[in-house]
Amino acid sequence: MRVQFLFCVMQGAATENFTHFHKIIDTDRNFLQLFAVKIFKEFVAFINRGNVIDLAVGVIIGTAFGRIVSSLVADVFTPLLGIIVGGVNLSQLSLVVGQTEGKEVVLAYGNFLQSCFDFLVTGFAIFMIIRLVNRIREIRKPEEVNHSQDTPTNAPQPTEEVQLLREIRDSLAEAKRAGRGKENSD
Description:
- The chain is mainly alpha-helical.
- The protein has two domains: 47 residues; 95 residues, Non-ribosomal Peptide Synthetase Peptidyl Carrier Protein, Chain A (Orthogonal Bundle).
- Strands 1-2 form a two-stranded antiparallel sheet.
- The chain is flat.
C-alpha cells in the first residue's frame, strides 16, 4: 500500500484517491507513534538495568584517572627519566631510505620508539598506583580476618576416626529406619 501511494504521488494521481491515501498516511502515523513509544520504553528499560549507568560512571572515572596518570607520567616520571638518560629525545631519530620525485623518503622510527617508551612509562605508573592500592587493601585485610575467625566455618576439621564413626552411626540409623518400614508393611 505504501509503495502504491508513493508511486501514485510520483505520477500525480494522489489527488484522485486522496481519501484512500489519507487513511494510509494516518495508519503510518499511528504506526510510527507506536514504534517510537516502544523504542523509548525499551531504551528506558535498558538504561534502568544499571549496567549502562555503571559503565558510564566507569568511563567518566577512567577519563579522570587517565588525566591523573598522564600528569604523573608527564610531570613526575618523564623529567626524572630525562635526567637519568641525559635528555634523550627518541622522536627525532629517522632513517632516509630513498628519494621519490626529489623528496626524501624518511622512516621515522624515532616516533615509534618514543611512543613505546611513553607506553612503558605509563604502564609502570599504572602498575605503581595499583600496587599501592593493593598494599592498602592488605593492611585493611587483617582487621576483616579477625572478625571472620569467630564464624563456625573456621572450625577445625574432624579426624578420620570421627568421620568414620559418624558414617557408621548414620548407616545404623538408616538401617534401623528401613527395618521399621518393613515391619510396618508386613
